[in-house]
Amino acid sequence: MKVKSSLKSLKARHRDCRVVRRKGRVYVINKVDPRYKAKQG
């Protein structure tokens, strides 16, 4: 999982990426291709 200061660029890498907030952290998750996981915070 990548840790990034800006997740906007990672969201654009794949069309199935979703930005999710959990417990004050922001995550990029992708059910189709799990290698695009990222978190912030």
DSSP helical segment count: 1
Unreliable spans: none
Largest sheet entry: 4 strands, mixed
Q: Strand order, biggest sheet?
A: 1-4-3-2
Order of helices and strands: EHEEE
Mean pLDDT: 91
Cα-based radius of gyration, to the nearest Å: 9 Å
Describe what this molecule looks like in 3D.
- The chain is mainly beta.
- Helices cover 10% and strands 37% of the residues.
- The protein has one domain (2-40).
- The chain has one helix at residues 8-11, and strands at 2-3, 18-22, 25-29, 38-40.
- The chain has a four-stranded mixed β-sheet, with no helix packed on it.
- Strand 3 (25-29) and strand 4 form a beta hairpin.
- The longest helix has 4 residues, at 8-11.
- The chain starts with a strand and ends with a strand.
- The mean pLDDT is 91.
